[in-house]
Design goal:
Chain A has helices spanning 12-23, 28-34, 42-45, 49-58, 64-75. Chain A is mostly helical and 76 residues long. Helix content of chain B is 31%, strand content 14%. A three-stranded antiparallel sheet of chain B has the order 1-2-3, with no helix packed on it. Classes of the chains: A mainly alpha (76), B alpha+beta (140). At the A-B interface, helix 1 of A face helix 2, strand 3 and helix 4 of B.
Amino acid sequence: MNKHYPCITGHCFHIRGTTFYLVSGMLPNIVKKFGHWHSQAFLEYWCCLDYLGAIHIEMLPINPHAWQQQRSCLKA
Amino acid sequence: MDLNSALSRALGLNICVWAICLLSFFCQLHSGKLLPPTQDLKKFDPQHHALFSHITESPTQNGTCNLHLLWLKTQKACRDNVWIPCQEAPLDPLHTIHKHYIKNKLQINHPIAAYWDSQGMLVTLTRSKFIGVSMKFFVQ
């Protein structure tokens, strides 16, 4: 078995697609809705978590108040 | 994607596998939502797995399409739509599905996961076959 691809299951393309959108900068709640994830279980499947964490911290705006407003609009 | 260069486009099966890869990747779909458990077309249940007729143009007019899913395991028969986004070639799922539809000479009421086998029979791509073909090329 190739060390880079240890196992392929029916979930692999789903999970890699989710990771692709997160790495592309799409908001996690949009990715969750788009991917029909109905529980927080999808957090367990996130790949490249170190990389994703860095990206999402980098994307934080300087003005936290504006960020809160943006989140409120998205929830509405 | 290594699979893209590894899959020969001469085989209907490979074109089908590539279309399902891109569809499940960009639509974040579990392969079970697209692939039936048996390759026998007579046992295919259109209420559980997608047909070409379930793909419709999106009202957003940005080139995306909708795939209408009639069955979701987590929602128990609740209908839902997924968006099929446009991407640049050769990773555009819409272009690949169209190519699969044309090259495999399929019809609008056929399952998306269908192809003509070596004996000239129209069969559906099962999950085990899909994983088997994908694995074969990934481990090369």
